[in-house]
Amino acid sequence: MPSVRAERPGASALLGWLTDPEAPRLCLVTDAPGLLGWFAAHGPRAAGRHRSARALVPLTGRTALGTAWAVADHLGVVATSPADLVRALATSDNGRAARTVLLLPALHAAAEPEAVAALLADLARLGRVRLVVEARPGTPEYELLAEGRFAEVDADESTAEPEPPARPAVELSDPAAVCAADPVTVTTGYVRDPDDAHGGLRAAWLRAGQALCAARNPADRALGLLAVLGDGADPRLRPALEELSAQAAWRMRWSRVVGDVAPPWPGPVAALAAQDGTLLVADLGGTVRLLAAADARPLGRLDHPVTGRVTALAPAPDGTVLLLDERGRLHTLRGREPRAPYLQRLTEAVSATLTRHPGTALAAIAGSVVVGDRLGSVHAFGLTGLHQAALHSGRVTAVAAVESATPFVCSGGADGAVRRWTPGRDPDPAPLAERSSPVVSLAATETPHGPVLGVAWADGTVELHRVERSHHVTYRPGPPVRAVTVTADGALVVGLEDALVRLERRAD
């Protein structure tokens, strides 16, 4: 690193604060224009075992909501509001937050300086992340931050900082303009204009905004908007967004959003599964609705004895549906035909086991039930016996089983890894996929093109893998992903609290 004393006098003070374990989590920087940008450019690019990563989040033109989205992206969480960001960091075991220093220049130039300062003050009080905020003494936002415990760096650099140029206005009812514009400008425009729905674009943007702001191109933004556009929106928007999203990796086949009536939105999603052209959609109260996979038409619901939340659905080839409840207990719904006696005995044995040792994840294929546990092991109960493998560090959060020439299991864990295992053999040494965020859902099936795997992580990322080709495509819906499933023809269905979306990849 260059001499900080020679190049930027304030940088040495910042380094002193950063290396002091007893220092306050908040550092206010004054009279040091450009220091935080310089500090980010000359700092470590990623967090190692003994050092912190520096994440630059310019505040110019940002609202509190836009700031929350940007910070959430850097910390690997999903937030739908500033309060949601604080709650997510307070309740999750997020190691990335502890290894990240947020560098936040130009608080005075934010679109909502006091609201942004209130958010940053809440984050500082959590004690989970370090923040360096460039603020001007004497302003309301500075005084708000100074109410808590903080350090201060005053470099007394005489170079005057020019005021940031005004951001150009955007036509917020024009989907092409919205998708092509600076996302910070669009977010601020919608936040400041709550009385105009802009044909439905405003609600869609505010629902999916974290992903839209991080999207790399207008086509991906158009796809993101299309996926959460309600059926009450201006009818001209959907075809326009479909055309704008033509270069995206995905084609949206259908979506159902909160408030939709034709067909109706099925409710918040807790678990998903696909079986013979039908989607099984479990809501937060334990009801499992049936939808046509092709177009989301309602087909009724399952009658079952579960009270409380269903955490996993596992349809078996004979039509039986196995459910895992929030206590880790197994429930069985009879299928279209009576179960063979040996399958009935298998299910009863698994149920008895989970009564004593609750499961955390569930899957089923012909003649086999697969269960994950809180210690990182996966158990395959089959007609030929029990096979087990320790696959994860910490809780197993999802499992999926594939009925192929050589049946295999995929598992996901709180460690962020997705692993493949053929019961009776050693697990594959390398993970199929991995992120620094817990896996929240897995689904896999055999298709005419080979086995496919859908996986969702807690940071809001979804991937669809062609398992044998080591190839995948990525999707980010914006809100937290609660569940995913894959259909027999290789489509991906993504369940959120306020939307259900079916996507199909455009090409290999």
Defining traits:
single chain; disordered N terminus; 28 strands; alpha+beta; 5-stranded parallel sheet
Question: Can you give me a brief rundown of this structure?
Answer:
The protein is an alpha+beta fold. It has 14 helices and 28 strands.
What does this structure look like?
Helices cover 26% and strands 30% of the residues. With 508 residues, the chain is an alpha+beta fold.
SSE topology sketch:
Blueprint (H helix, E strand, L loop, with lengths): L3 H4 L1 H10 L7 E5 L4 H7 L11 E4 L7 H12 L6 H10 L3 H4 L1 E5 L8 H14 L3 E5 L5 H6 L5 E4 L20 H6 L2 H9 L9 H14 L3 H10 L9 H8 L5 E8 L13 E5 L2 E5 L5 E5 L5 E4 L8 E6 L5 E5 L4 E4 L7 H16 L4 E5 L2 E5 L4 E6 L2 E6 L5 E7 L5 E6 L3 E5 L11 E2 L4 E9 L2 E8 L4 E5 L4 E5 L5 E6 L5 E5 L2 E7 L3
Parallel strand pairs: 1-4, 1-5, 2-3, 3-4
Antiparallel strand pairs: 6-28, 7-8, 8-9, 9-10, 11-12, 12-13, 14-15, 15-16, 16-17, 18-19, 19-20, 20-21, 22-23, 23-24, 24-25, 26-27, 27-28
